[in-house]
Structure formats: C-alpha cells, structure tokens
C-alpha cells in the first residue's frame, strides 16, 4: 500500500480542557463503529451530525497530525455490459471521500459510501477505465487508482432449449415477470379484470393482443420527458387484434333481425372495437433494482382506440379519396386499427402502424357496379389490390345500434350506395382509404390528437424504423408491407436533421417537420447483390394518368395507392416484409421476411412468385408430426447497406443475415445459415436493435429476433433470439436449388454463419407469438410482449393458462396477452 503523509508539524491546537465530560467525538464513536467511520461519512452519519461536526471527529479526538491512508488500488477484468463494483477504505481520520473517473469511455458512477458501481460500455477492443478514490481530511488528502479492463461483450448466457411449456422461459440468471395484461384497468374506478367474459369498458383497460411497443422515459417528478430515466417511464403498446373466443362469456354471437339479416349484438362489438388500438401506460420501478409495476391511476395513461379522433397530415390530407360521411373535407378520421409493429421517433413520439386493416371492412355485391357507374372504376382496382372484400373479419358493420344516429358500426360497411353522392360524403365507401397509415402519437400528452402521416404511404404497414440521425443529413424511415409478395419501402425526409429537435417541446409539430414532406421509395433487389430505391413520385416512371392499370391523378393518389405504384415501378416482391431494424453503429437496415407459402421454383399463377436472389428458397418443410409446409416456410432476414452509409442514398448492397430453418434441414438448400439446436428458428417477425445509450447498442449491437411461427410449432413454442451480427458482405454466395413448385437454381448472398453469435434467449407459452420489444435507456430492463397465448382454444376448451401459469406452470384461467419485464439478476445489461 502506498501511504501519502499529509502534514506532520505541531500546530499548537491541543485539548487543554481537564473536564471528564463525554466529548462529542466519544458520542460519535459510541454510536457508530470505527468500521462505519472509515473512509468518511456514511449517509446516516451525515444526516445525524452534519459534515462540519464530523470534520472534528477522529479516534485521537483530533487526528490532524495523523497520516491519512487509503487502500491499494486494484485491477479487475470485465466484459461490456457488466456491473462492476469497486470498494476502497480510508483511515478513520478521513472526513470525506470521492470517486472520480480518470480515463476511458465515460461511465455513470453510482457511489455508496466508499464503494462505486457502474455498468461497463461495450467496446471493439480491450479498453481500460481508470477510477480514482480520494480520501480527505483537515490537512490534506490521499488517493489511489483502480483499473477496470473492459473486453468486447459476448452473448454470455446459456441458450434456452426449445420447449412447449406454458410459461415464458428465460436463461438462468434472468427473471421474467408479468407487468401489464389484457383487460388490466388504467383509470381510477375501473374494476379489476374478472377474466370470465363479463368485463366491459376496454376504453379504460389494456387492449388485447399486445404487439409493437416503445418505452419513453419520464422525469422523476413524472411531469416531463426524460429519455434517460430507466426507472420511470411510459410504455406505448399496440393492441393488434382480438381473441373473441375468450373475450365474451361464451362464443361471439349473431342473431337474425326481423328481416332475417344476421347481426352482431352491439354490446359484444363495442368491446371488440375498444380492445383494439394503443395503450399508453405509466410504469415505475421500485428504486434502481426493485420490481416494476404499472401505475393504474396515472394521469398520463391513455387508450387510443378505433373511435379516437385523428388528423391527416401530409400530401393526402384533404384528398377526395379521404372524404367520408364523418369528414366531408377529408382532413380528419376516426381511430387506428390492427396496429402491429411500431417505431419510436427521435423526437420522443410513438409511431404505430396499421397492418391488416382491410379485413375489417365489407363491400356489398353491388359495390363494384355503383363505383363504376359513378366514374370511379379505378377504386375497384384499388380495393382489390388492398384486399377489401365482400365479408369482414368480425361483422362489426352488421350491428343495428340502439342510437340510430351512431356511425361507429356502419363505418365498417365500405359499400358505395347509389343513392348517395359519388364523392363519398354520404356513406363510408372511402373509409378504407383512411386506414393503412403510420400514425404518430405523443405519449406525453394524453389530450393530443394523433396524426396519420400520409407521406409515408398507405399499405399493410408492419413498422417504421428511423435510420441513424446525423446532423445535416436527411433522415430515412424504413418500412415493410406485410403481405406475401409485397415490398420494402423507405421515406427520406425533405428536411435535414437538427440535433436540437431531439428534445423539442412540440413533438407532433416536429413530426410535421420531418414526416410530412419528402420522398417515398420502394426497393428493387438485383441478383448481383446490389439494389436501388425507386421513387414513388407522380408524373415519373409511369405514375401518371396514362397508366393502363391504374391512372394516377396526383401525388396524393400515388401515396394512397403505394402498392399499385410499387407494381408499376417493378419493385421486388418479398416473402412478407415485416419489422425493420437499423444497426445504431453502422446504419445497416434489417428486415424480417416471415415466410411465403406462395413462393415457388417456377411461378404457376398470378398469386405465386418464382424464387429470386433475395428470396431464393422454395422447399418442403417436413414436421415431426407428419405434416408438411411448402414455399419458404421458415422465412429469413435480409439486410442492406446504403451506399456511402447514408440515409439519403438511392442505391444499396444486400445479403441475407440468417435463413430460418430446422437444425437438421438440408444444409445445401434450406439450412443455409448453419443453424443448430441453440439457435434454429422459424418465421422471424419482431426485430429490434439495442439502444446506443447502453452496451446493447454499442460496438457490436445486439439484434433481438422474435418469431410468429406455424411451421416449427411441432417442436417448440415461439421464441426470441439475440444475435450480434456482422456486416453486409461478410459471408459468401451460395447456389440454391428449389424442391417445391418446380426446379430452379438461384444464386443468393448469405451472411457469415451466426454460430455462437446467435442464441435462443426466450421461449414463450403455448400457442403464442412473441412480439414487441423495447428497453430502458440503460438496457438493464427489457419489455417483451406475449400475444394470443392459447389461440387454438376457446372459452370451453382452454389450451393455455398463461399468464396465470407463469408462477407454477399450470393454472385454470383464460389466457391473456401481456407485457413481460425481463431483468438480469446481477443488474447488468440484458443479453450480455
């Protein structure tokens, strides 16, 4: 130990009082042991006596002439994302102590007495972090340094085995707890959820089937945003659709009216409608390491449902195709529905995405003739391209409401009525055009009106992910259109990013700035590993009134019919593009291609597509139960690198990060990524990178992959994996021969085999989908959603009891979708 000697001269300050009365120093010594006093003041000591009093206390009743000493420094080893705690001691005559960082990447220090803790950042090479402990007294101080040697992070957990248990299974060393369940009340006075089908008022309860989700930090006071707060925040959660077989007392019902028309009962349909949309709910952690809970009575809690007023913004605002009986000028609408994936905007708003909305509408058998007679035959083409048919998913349009003036049910009838005005203001023939958008919500302002951002195009939006935000560069926002043989898009803002907007006070106005003006592009993947972004701009490349299939009338028309525009431009049909995610370090974009039963070696009909370089597999997937799946049954994850790594670029290179497959599948034509039992998967869906504010998003960021699978469920429930991917081009080319729908050989580009850099982290309960993921800024808590557990059962045949079963593995109650909190038992960054 190195002792620093401070001041050894006699200064004349001696105790000349002969009294035997107990001194203050002796009182302190009696109340607090020498061990408590070493190294300076504890929090308790400071509160009781104050720093000025303690400055005069020591074992020799003065101590100014004593040597102040501190313990030796130390050197410790740690990987990125780990909690490091250093403890030191000082001699009893020290009256205060401090820890400071001397060198290395800046870390947030938590000091407790003479100990300090911090979470190591991730690094690309071994890096030293040096901290200094200093103890001080009346006549000087003494210091000692410690070094933490940080090495690059690894996936330091044991892969979870595939299983069909009725719980959320996570690795040893982690804890998963249920936070927010379908039906949970989010307002004062709302009764606890009975979960027997009798519950009502979903407008003030958690909706059903939780999906995409983002966390927004709150200040400790709860009165303002604080993106860095990892113990108090808001969760914005999508509620994609419903499980009506569990929502009512019995099965959903219909009954014939006096005219013999089959109608749904109003009370049932009100519940079903309200259970869709978005929750914004406050969540709180007890201290820095305690349990999470949601705040049921928070003033910031909000449900956004299909009935919530909305405003249109961007090029299609006020367009004739958005005019309805509800909004004659086409500037407003009602609600959001079938909200699947999402995005957290860099200025603190939540973007929710309307996916399979088309199935909620019905058109009568006379609709086509009425539209054609009114001069709107092209609308028939549009309805067909987007899948708006003659029957709806839930029959909401059949309700005959008690209030005859209500339109919350008739709006789902998209039939054009001949007796009404051809502009659509007398009925809801144009209502389908009001859905299929990215919807921006300010989670911090429950009174704000959400905006539908029409510049980002209309489709079956799966998600929207911002590219890297670089000052002076126009940002891009990447999106998938979730349908077989649909496209990948990006929107490039017309406005270059200003870092000051990250903390703008008017968040929706900031959204106006970046999301209402710009260019929407669709991706074309070339066989040589390059690609191009094709602009969806009216008047260019056949997007005009002379187009034979669909004569476009304006830029608004191009955006409203983005799918048709993509067809014209020759975009590459993909195997169900779903979530997008952007690597925060290098800006590369990843997109899950969930599966495609219509992929063939050779196209045989208008609904099938032949294999190509970016979608190279068509094969027969044989299940252990004897069943088979064909096409691209297990899906894959494509990634692209923009030219010059710039969001403004119009060209890119691409490869496939990983092909889903059974571990024992043919390595030449199916298991192209060499997956094994620790990381094989099927039907990738949810996708998300760790945040750059913590080790999960630094150096080699973590990629979270979630599955929505029907092909591999003979072996395992759906799952979540964590990977540490490399870069586009780090692998090789492979020649793939199809074994389904005709023989064809295609050359594709496969990234480096994931190996140990991809592991199964979580397996969900029975019959569920794992979807939705977000984390706190420090990465020490992640939130994951479990959707539709027990979806193959019903109220009379319950096939999952989750989340009731989470505690013991069994239960008796009806299943409920829910949000799960996952933390690492040692307090470190999840996944590392």
From TrEMBL:
Annotated source species: Sphingomonas adhaesiva
Pfam families for this protein: PhoX (PF05787)
Name listed for the protein in its UniProt record: DUF839 domain-containing protein
